[in-house]
Amino acid sequence: MSTETGGRVVVLTGASAGVGRATAIEFGKHGWRVALLARGRDGLEGAREDVERVGAQAMIVETDVADHAQIEAAAKHIEQEWGPIEVWVNNAMATIFSEFLDVSPEDFRRSTDVTYLGAVWGTRTALLRMKPRDRGVIVQVGSALAYRSIPLQAPYCGAKSALRGFTDSIRSELLHARSGVHITMVHLSAFNTPQFEWGRTTMGCRPRPMGKIFQPEVAARAVYWAATHRRRELWVGWPAVQATLGTRIIPGYLDRMLARTAVDGQHTDEALPAGREDNLYTPVDGDHGAHGRFDSVAVATSVQLWLTTHRGAIAAVTLIALAIIGTWLALYFRSA
């Protein structure tokens, strides 16, 4: 195993597939011991194999994050086996592709319990351990939709917006207490994950992500970077930047634009597969991996992510370039 981090412990919720699965592998590559939390045993076993394949240790803990008692029990078990948790990543989510009035109250509550309260309970469980030790990092996997909501995903947009508000509150509490615990939020663009295959839907066709699609490994690198650097928030992909800044500057225009484009933009001309199952209440059988069905169009890099995670180098190069230009201009006018 790599000694880069000395085998430190990270907990990942929603680790069996998608961004969580890719993030587990990313931490494993850096030598972390990775505790994998999710409901589906098949996906968890596959994630464990992936982490072990890159030379790291992995632990499976079957957990429904909507149940605070299960999260607390998972954390207790992990620390008994491996010692202190140093990073906790709240990634688990459950979305519904549907017009709001077509979502039953029970389904809306379930999506909120997983996506919002699951992160709240994870944060609480992590803080109960990290605050007394005065160290640790909590990473909330957010979304551009926490800033700029879109139609047909009201439960998910509401949950991510709530999580952003909750996180800001906790951050201020930690600062007030002069705590060494750091909390950050990573806001993602659209990613090629299995959620579009198993998210509950009433649309009658296979759903798709809006706009430019990134591979989950891009998100994984962002989450790892956020866990190992002191950044308040990290935006991933130009679409996330555009959505976040745009809603601050031209919110009304975006309301109208998304009304025109975002409904059809999430539809495809593909019928739902016969017997399609969703994972709102129970996991879908099988190991679904990190990637969804959009490999042919998803991109594996993000220039924006590289730029935002290399601000120091960019500033240094800019200063050097300005110094060279300034020196050249001074010599030119002196000799003129």
Quick tags:
48% helix; disordered N terminus; two-stranded parallel sheet; Rossmann fold; 11 strands; SDR_fam; transmembrane; single chain; oxidoreductase; alpha/beta; seven-stranded parallel β-sheet; Short-chain dehydrogenase; 336 residues
Structure notes:
By secondary structure, this protein is of the alpha/beta class. It has 2 domains: 9-301, NAD(P)-binding Rossmann-like Domain (Rossmann fold), CATH 3.40.50; 312-336. The protein is built from 11 helices and 11 strands. The chain has helices at 18-29, 41-53, 68-82, 105-133, 154-176, 195-198, 216-227, 238-249, 251-261, 303-308, 311-335, and strands at residues 9-13, 33-38, 58-62, 85-90, 96-97, 137-143, 182-188, 190-191, 200-201, 213-214, 233-236. Strands 3-2-1-4-6-7-11 form a 7-stranded parallel sheet, with helices on both faces. The protein has a two-stranded parallel sheet with strand order 5-9. Strands 8-10 form a two-stranded parallel sheet. Strand 1, helix 1 and strand 2 form a beta-alpha-beta unit. Helix 1 (18-29) packs parallel to helix 2 (41-53), helix 1 crosses helix 7 (216-227) and helix 4 runs parallel beside helix 5 (154-176). Pfam families: adh_short (PF00106). Keywords: Membrane, Oxidoreductase, Transmembrane, Transmembrane helix. This is Short-chain dehydrogenase. One of its GO terms (molecular function) is oxidoreductase activity. One of its GO terms (cellular component) is membrane.
